[in-house]
Amino acid sequence: MENLPVEVIGNVLSHLGAARDVVIASATCWKWREARRKHLHALTFSSDDWPVYRDITTRRLEIIITQTIFQTRGLQRLSIRMDDAHELSAAPVIAWIMYTRETLRYLSYNVHTMPSVNILEKCGRQRLEVLDLDLNSITGIEPSYQRFTSLKSLSLRHVSISALDLCLLLAACPKIESLALDALEIVTSDSQSMMELSSPMLKSIYARALGVDKIILEADNLESLHLNALNPDLFELIGKGTLIHLKIDDVSVTHLDIGEITDHLEVIDVSNFTIIWPKFYHMISRSSKLRRLRLWGMVFDDEDEIMDSEIVAICFPQLRHLSLSYDLRDGVL
């Protein structure tokens, strides 16, 4: 092992990931410590990796994270995920982000922080490619200043943000391909809450538990749409018919519009979905490339609405997998 170049040792330590394992391994000799300082690319602090994090004081945890991060140069991946046992102070969190932001490409932050830190203001906007935020607050997006020119994946969970700032944030990410919105606290300016999002490069979106009445998504290159635990009056997708995967789970929507062109749809997975069936069937009936169809827990008003096998064979000639489970209003089929 002594003959290994420090760059190789740095890659080995980076694959360990967990900060505790990195520190223990690098204590082997001076060469490994040197590799940690100069060639470590990834660090993860997680209460799942080391339960002791839950038992130490918050102040001690902040010191451990600070010392470990500040003994590195050129971190590209940083993940800090703690359970509810800790509420970190804003000052050290800001210091960690400022110290690493010039080289950071991946950031995952899931810790209660007091006062709340607007991570987006501190992130390096030129290099960051993946951003995963939980338990955070985002305010005052300025697209002319906060341009995330390399960001390809954005995940927001339990984040407080206004509908306008979310729209501006997406506009500030010209290369974004993947977007996950989970249990957001969305602030709107009117009584009938509406969220409008637009992204020409977006390929995949996951939306769960968003407390808004109307969702309008404009995405010309969207390939994957996953809706979960939603109850909007309106969901409208404006695009160019590029959708390939459609998954809907535990959703009740008055009006759903995924566009007139559904020729490229290959997978439809629907469960516990409340909608007027003829409208939904009309949308998917032209999906001649469909290979997988799952309709589970669908509720019909009468037997005339039910799609039989002959209709399936005619509409979807390339279908290879079919799962159907229907309920009638007056009984189970």
From TrEMBL:
InterPro entries: F-box-like_dom_sf (IPR036047), F-box_dom (IPR001810), LRR_dom_sf (IPR032675), LRR_FXL15/At3g58940/PEG3-like (IPR055411). It comes from the Eukaryota. SUPFAM superfamilies: F-box domain, RNI-like. Residues 127-227 form the F-box/LRR-repeat protein 15/At3g58940/PEG3-like LRR domain. Pfam families: F-box-like, LRR_At5g56370. Residues 2-35 form the F-box domain. This is F-box/LRR-repeat protein. It comes from Iris pallida.
